[in-house]
Amino acid sequence: MATEELSSRGSNTRQLGIQEDTRGQSDTQRCESNLFKTRSDGCGILTLLLLSSQPIHHDAGRRAHHHHRKTLIPSPPPAPQGPLEPTMADDAASAPPTAELAAASISSPPSSDLEPPSTRTRIRTILDAGDSLAGQHVVVGGWVKTGRQQGKGDFAFLEVNDGSCQGNLQVMVDKEVYPLARLTHTGTSVLVEGLLQKPPVEAKQRIELKVKTVIEVGEVDAAAYPLPKTKLNLETLRDFVHLRARTNTIGAVARIRHQLAYATHTFFDKEDFLYIHTPIITTSDCEGAGEMFQVTALFSQAEKVEKELKENPAPSEADVEAAKLVVKEKGDAVAQLKAAKASKQEITAAVLELTKAKEIVLRLEERSKLKPGIPHKADGSIAFENDFFKRPAFLTVSGQLQVETYACALSNVYTFGPTFRAENSHTSRHLAEFWMVEPEIAYANLHDDMNCAERYVKYLCKWLLDHCREDMEFMVKHVDKTAIERLELVSSTPFERISYTKAVEILEGTGKKFENKVEWGIDLASEHERYLTEVIFKKPVIVYNYPKGIKAFYMRLNDDQKTVAAMDVLVPKVGELIGGSQREERLDVLKQRILDADLPLEPYEWYLDLRRFGSVKHSGFGLGFERMILFATGLDNIRDAIPFPRYPGRADL
User: Contact at 8 Å (CB) between 552 and 580?
Assistant: First the structure.
């Protein structure tokens, strides 16, 4: 550390390789001297790898000719030493000079080798600015929503959208600029350059583009294009999952999904959580439900073996014995040469032949064991020791168990990624592949868990209202009239909190006849959850302390021995949005809970170690990301809330 601190006080420019004396060196030598440069910031060494086959030039004219690119990443200035407060002068001295950073750039290949970089302006930028950009020359790219020729074919109007926003930019093209019939079909891709101008006063648009040059066109066969101007229902669009993002609804969902993901990372960063990447392939079942996708290479291995055996049949026992006989003969020959005190050269040659013969026997013995089909043990079970991971492996149903290991070391963490469930369900609420947001909080009880979940859901709702208003207004107009009202309600209203027992009592007392009978011990169905939120309380509800028989083994057993410290956040429109709990931190209780769930202990020994070594009270929850999108948008089917839905019978693309 002393060395690092000493190094960090040295010349920044020297460490970055900016002011090194390169006089007397060739261009190639100067390039090589800049290949690896290091800089210390007191916390370690940053190595900068300058990848370029071009020499580094210091002449300003030659730099301009080669279009240098900056790739150096300056480290923060060194931390102040001792009690002295840093001054502005210190900061200025420690920061790398701008001019010197610019000088230490890498030459780009000659411009004749590449097209010039794109200078495209996003349509959202133009529409947000209104008519203030009139008179500006811009390049715009996008897909034609509608196109029509007017003025007896003298010009055409195109409604162009590039996905940056819900609105389209009106583009006007004269027939002298480009053949109009090749531009007007729905779905055509265009890249055009022109002048932004105010349309006539009676026009709906505030700004339009008068095209001067058509740079690129991706034409469309109008007779074959599956997305016509007329509206298609969302179920039909699922048959064109590779094109449906061009529609207004799916485009809006994509932007809303992006904003929710960004808001998720922003929220947890502000709350001082660390983002942890948990594995997609796992050897443990988090939920204990057994509805998991198996990950195996045994089938491909079996196909490979079967093909190989057809092309080159396995050796017979006689073939192996014959090869062993050759080994014996070669061994005898070596022994005879040694006994006869033959030359070293002769003995070496004989030993080499013996070695080759032994290798042939080993290969033959190995091939003789090859059998077609999946390998099985003597008891008939699959021999997973022959598989890739040497044991059964699955696609994860949750990153929770793995992220707990980091919570038990780094306190507040979360994971956000895809999860998988081999549940043969065709309902509008289930997917085989879906995304989960799963935070874990050390030194937190169930109350802390509920507080964090409520803050998070409110934050997401407020974020959409502040950052996605246009798309949310589209949803209100075309999908669900109450979408914005629902976001406003949830973002500003305290959540109701009731025990599971109380929830059952309330539902039983309504006198309403539900499809699923209400009684203590059942897992509340969506109709029960929505009735609580939409009819009884008219706001989000957190139900806690569920019966242990309907919850996972890792949830903390309450003192009554009948319930666990679990909680579900219920919201209007979708019912359960979040499921969470305080985790069982007591080793003996957790062991028994695993056994009670008919799960083997061995795959969970690492999980038990978290309780053996420095056990800590901790809690967490999981939010179904697609369910959050359903809640926000009012969509009816979860298959429209994810770009590439996977469900029984469908895994397109």
Answer: no
Distance, CA of 244 to CA of 237 (rounded, Å):
6
b/e per residue, 77-94, with b = 16+ CB within 10 A? Answer: bbeeeeeeeeeeeeeeeb
The strand pair at 541-547 and 433-442 is best described as: unpaired
Q: Which of 407, 416, 409 is nearest to 444 (CA)?
A: 407
Please count the other Cβ atoms lying within 10 Å of the Cβ belonging to residue 15.
21
Token output for 216: 């690129």
Instruction: State which H helix or E strand residue 498 sits in.
Output: strand 496-499
Least confident span in 99-108, 173-182, 241-250: 99-108
Whole-model pTM over 0.85: no
d(CA 641, CA 34) in angstroms, rounded, equals 49
CB-based contact 497:450 (threshold 8 Å) = yes
- Lowest-confidence pick of 75-89, 441-455, 501-515: 75-89
Question: Containing H/E element for 422?
Answer: none
Which amino acid makes up residue 563?
T
Phi, psi values for residue 272, rounded to 5° = 70, 40
Asked if residue 444 lies in contact with residue 436, where contact means CB atoms within 8 angstroms, the answer is no
Angle between the N-to-C axes of helices 446-467 and 248-270, in degrees from 0 to 180, rounded to the nearest 10: 130
- Please check whether residue 414 is in contact with residue 437, taking contact to mean a CB–CB distance below 8 angstroms: yes
**CB contact set of 449 (below 8 Å; sequence gap of 6+):** 441, 567, 580, 581, 582, 619, 620, 621
Strands 274-275, 412-420: pairing kind: parallel
For 297, the 3-state DSSP assignment is coil
Q: Which residues pair with 440 in a beta bridge?
A: 413, 620
Say if residues 636 and 235 touch (Cβ distance below 8 Å). Answer: no
Q: Where are the alpha helices (DSSP H) in 342-467?
A: 344-368, 400-410, 446-467
Where residue 641 falls among pLDDT bands split at 50, 70, 90?
A: very high
Question: Would you say the C-alpha torsion 320, 325, 326, 330 has a positive or negative sign?
Answer: positive
The pLDDT tens digits for 33-79 are 443 444 444 444 333 343 333 444 444 444 444 444 333 334 444 44
* Distance separating alpha carbons of residues 3 and 637, to the nearest angstrom: 60
Q: In this structure, are residues 263 and 463 in contact, taking their beta carbons and an 8 Å threshold?
A: yes
Q: Is 445 exposed, middle or buried (0-12, 13-18, 19+ CB in 10 A)?
A: middle
Local structure of 527: helix, strand or coil: helix
Q: What does the pLDDT look like over 425-482, one tens digit per residue?
A: 888 888 999 999 999 999 999 999 999 999 999 999 999 999 999 999 999 999 999 9
